[in-house]
Write a structure and sequence with these properties.
By secondary structure, the protein is mostly helical. The chain has four helices and two strands. α2 (44-60) packs antiparallel against α3.
Length: 98
Amino acid sequence: MSPKRILIERSNTNLAPYVYALPAEMADYVDMFKLLGAWHECTEQVLLEVLHLVREKYQQIELFDREEVASDLRLVLDIINQLKPAPGEALDPSIQSR
């Protein structure tokens, strides 16, 4: 598993199976995971990366498991809700471009 699939600080949204929270038992190794490139916290960049991974998954397979699709759809909707701007605010251009 790539370090870019590990999140040191837990997220409000369960991003598995795309990004996993570092287990509490591994807390002594946080510095090592940071050096390897693990995400420190759940940022917009992490959420966009998860959306990218979901898209890649469905571009590569033709048959879909109904429960897996439903789970991924819930995850995507949760991410979109986290990324959406507050009422009256514009979406960050860096998010729009991705």
